[in-house]
Amino acid sequence: MSSLTNQNQHGLIALSAEVVRMAQIRAHRQGVQFRQELARLVAEEAIMALDYDLGLLIESNTLSQSDAMAAALGVNDLVVNGHRIDIRALDEDGDVSVARALVGSQYLSLGSLIVELDGVGGGRIVGHVSSGAWLKAEDGLRDADTIRLPFETKSDFDLSHSIVELAQKAPFKLPAVAQLANFENDVNDLFNNKGRLIASRQKQIFSYLCTNWSDELMAQVEAIGCKLPAAKVTRVLFAAGRWHAASERLTDKLALRFKKLSRDQIRAQILTVGEKLGGEIKAPAFRHELLTGLATSELAMTQGMPAKAAQAVMARVMIGASAVEAVKSLVKNAVAVDLALAIKSKRQGAAGFMAATAEEIGMAFQQLALQPAYATHSSGDSGVDSINEALALLQATDMADIITACDQEMSQF
């Protein structure tokens, strides 16, 4: 399995930030569908993670290598042991879809593996749609360029069995496809003037490309290219505008929580995480990376805050430990923690860490009914240092609470 991914026991493939970023770049620059690109990467890694003894080999002669083919027709295939298998992402409505030109072609002869994405961070293969199911979904349609069908995910889908079965099928042979009369014009019409072609003509041109696919043919196809239609440009611009608006709204919300950071600092971190993980604000990976980054920056601006210990105590609180338990696990002087907690409770909304004063320590001793000898030590004494360390870490536990609250807000953003 690639070092850029990992897979858990439920078959979920987690894509690394680097892989997601490469998919984003291709989607933005070439006009391919980002979700389909992620789905293919998930499927590739899932198949590579299967038992080596199955003898599965992923080959490179895919149609999806071609930016023009992927952008114009949505081809999204893997070739396993010489067999071409289409990959489809399940959409938010529980449907899958494919360009009509692909239906009934050799490209879809083995059907489609269906991937359910988990935000932008990965996903799992949840089933298979046969070529016959695609043909049935097309039956009776007239003008539709896209074939859609509802899909029910299968929690017990056996990828090993299914992929081996597909890879062992005899090659599917369609009738010979006639040479294109004018290759450049025909392919350009298919990619850039599809409305001029009836569905059967689109299928003929695509079938020729699929049947004769090679590196040489791909070079010819790429030379023709897919011109991004005005509608797609509009959607790209709209998406960019929507992301800008969303990042501004999120900046406003987070500025109320992370008060030591400026709006520019918060916005910069949002944009950095967006570039790395995509603009899915609700995605768990996005929320985690952004909020922990903001919390770290906020704590770093607090004078006297032990950065590493603060991050450690935040992590403990976020997995369920109480503030006192978390701090006592790092500050060995338990009495100092109790005193710090008493001092903190008396500070009414004081912003930022402040070293404990002699008066505060004395009042804490009285509150806890401890012997005052502890409080008479100088400020350089390790006991007072422990109190101040505990105070700082207790403030860090407040930051963990802020992260939790922000995480809940962002999950509903």
Helix proportion of residues, in percent? 40-55%
Unreliable stretches covering 5 or more consecutive residues: 1-9, 371-382
Please provide the count of β strands.
Answer: 9
Strand content: 5-15%
Structural class of the secondary structure composition?
A: alpha+beta
Shape: elongated
Note the main sheet.
7 strands, mixed
Span between N and C termini? 34 Å
> Helical segment tally?
16
Average pLDDT: 81
Question: Radius of gyration over alpha carbons?
Answer: 29 Å
Element order: H for helix, E for strand: EEHHEHEEEEEHEHHHHHHHHHHHH
Strand arrangement, major sheet? 1-2-8-7-5-4-3
Structure description:
- There is one protein chain.
- With about 425 residues, the chain is of the alpha+beta class.
- The chain is built from 16 helices and 9 strands.
- It has helices spanning about 15-30, 35-50, 65-75, 130-140, 160-165, 185-190, 200-210, 215-225, 230-255, 265-275, 285-300, 305-320, 325-330, 335-345, 360-370, 380-410; strands at about 5, 15, 60, 75-80, 85-90, 95-100, 110-115, 120-130, 145-150.
- The strands form 2 sheets. It has a 7-stranded mixed sheet. A two-stranded antiparallel sheet has the order 6-9.
- The radius of gyration is 29 Å and the shape is elongated.
- Mean pLDDT is about 80; it is low at about 1-10 and about 370-380.
What is the strand and helix layout of this fold?
Elements (H helix, E strand, L loop, with lengths): L4 E3 L5 E3 L1 H14 L3 H15 L9 E2 L7 H7 L3 E4 L2 E7 L5 E5 L12 E6 L4 E8 L1 H8 L7 E5 L8 H9 L15 H10 L6 H13 L3 H10 L5 H26 L7 H15 L6 H17 L6 H12 L4 H6 L5 H13 L11 H11 L13 H30 L2
Parallel strand pairs: 5-7
Antiparallel strand pairs: 1-2, 2-8, 3-4, 4-5, 6-9, 7-8
Helix pairs in contact: 1-2, 9-10, 10-11, 11-16, 12-16, 14-15, 14-16
